[in-house]
Each structure stands twice: as structure tokens, then as C-alpha cells.
Amino acid sequence: MLTTMMNFRKLSEQQNQLYNFIDDLLWEEWDPIGINDIPEARDEYSSYTPQIFSLAIHGASHEDIVEKLRRIEINWMGLVSNAERNMKLATKILQAALDFKPMLSIPTNLPQKLVGLLGSPYPSRQQR
User: Do residues 21 and 49 touch, judged by C-beta distance below 8 A?
Assistant: First the structure.
């Protein structure tokens, strides 16, 4: 089990998998300062993982995650935000959260527009 900065609690195996997925995604695909080819800098974005993970498991909207990434880029890193990249990342994060939803107890209050974009994590009656 992994302990995070979030309330200093232990994560379940499923939560740990989602947490690591988000951490890897921030390193591999977000990488706003362009350093993911330097192995020694691997933990550069790890301090942002708990914030994004918390948003994902507590039912944040796509816009909430995009805005959080934007604020990190602008306010913490002093960079120009990349809206297109942030929207793609938010979609991947929320899709991963939906994939783990039955195991994570994520609230079901996702906007219908987002559920339509990502697809429902549950089979339709026709698919059953």
C-alpha cells in the first residue's frame, strides 16, 4: 500500500493503481517543462499527483481538472498553459477513474456531457 499526502491515509490497491497511472501520465504526457527525457528528474511532477488524484476520485468535472493543470502551469511554474494538452490529459484521467469507479467509490455526479464523451462505465441494457 502507498501512503500519500492526502490525509496521510493508505490507499487500496485499486486507488494505488489509479494514483500511479496519474503520476505516470503527468510525467510522460503532461511534462510542461519538457524534462521527461532526464531520468534523474522523474519526481519533478509528483507533488501535483495527490491534487489531481483527489479531484479524480471525488467526482471533479473535466473542467475542474483542466483548470487545476492550467493553474499549476501558470501560477506555480510561470509557464503559458497548453489547453489542448490539458483537455486530453483530463479526459484520460477521468476515463481511468471511471474504469476504477466500482472499486474506488467515485461519486456518480459526472455531467452527462462528460459521460457521453467518455462513455458509460456500465453496460447498457442492450449490451447485457
Answer: no
